[in-house]
Amino acid sequence: MEEKNISEQNISSASDTKAKKQVPLRLNQNLWNELSAWAEDDFRSLNGQIEYLLNECVKWRKGKK
Questions:
Q1: Which domain holds residue 43?
Q2: Integer angstrom CA distances of residue 8 from 22, 28, 46, 48
Q3: What is the pTM of this model?
Q4: Number of domains the chain contains
Q5: Is residue 8 part of a domain?
Q6: Is residue 51 part of a domain?
Q7: What is residue 22's three-state secondary structure?
Q8: Are 34 and 19 within 8 A, CB to CB?
Q9: pLDDT in tens, the chain (65 residues)
Q10: Helices (H), the chain
């Protein structure tokens, strides 16, 4: 029974990953450094920080319309 739960969790994690799109992104070194430091301050990965900032920008834009 427990093995089934572990398998279900693995499938769930795999489908969550598939729900996100991958986007190649090129950043200059200065911007990379700034975002990395900011991410570290906020206890996020660089990818998590970029996703957070993009989400905030989208919320801000929607609020201005």
A1: 27-65
A2: 24, 41, 29, 25
A3: 0.67
A4: 1
A5: no
A6: yes
A7: coil
A8: no
A9: 455 555 555 555 555 656 889 999 999 999 999 999 999 999 999 999 999 999 999 999 999 87
A10: 2-19, 29-41, 46-64
